[in-house]
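Q: Here's a chain of 187 amino acids. Please give me its 3D structure as tokens.
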Amino acid sequence: MHERKKLTDILAGSERDELAKAFTQTKAADDFAPLPRGEYVAHVVEGLLDTTRKGKPEYRLTFRVAEGEYVGRRFWHHCYLTPAALPLAKRDFAKLGITSLEQLDHPLPAGIRCRVTLALRRDDDGAEQNKVKRFEVIGIDKPEPDAFAPADAVQGTPLADAGTPSTSQGETKELFPFGANGTWGGH
């Protein structure tokens, strides 16, 4: 059994004193409420295969607000992979350049900027949560350099490009063919 550490075991005297002062003076953060309904500019920061609580397959998109009062806040959109919901999922996938199920196994390209309309949905228990009513891709932004990335990635030579996989013949093809979906202008 491990002995439980105390704060004095992990912080030196002055560090503990500084933390104690900050703890006393800091106001606890409010719980996050859903974002207000409306239109937001947000980046798609992740696409992830998962299952719902009822065990149904889904592809969950994570958005992060890019502009305005709520910059940095996240919200989610669920694309259900069931026969009844597949037409809606395919509509949303097409906006992201996803034209096959195999693409769902790969990370989405970075920097997908969208205009998203959010609504508020009230559950049977009265809890409110955000619901993406619609979204459109409005551009592809060049990602900010990662301060912790290896030197060649920071200098503009990515170590791997999820958007252009190699085929068995050694040629490359575009995994997420954004050009087929509209004209893009980065911000």
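Q: Can you summarize the key feature?
A: The helical segments are 7-10, 13-25, 86-95, 151-154.
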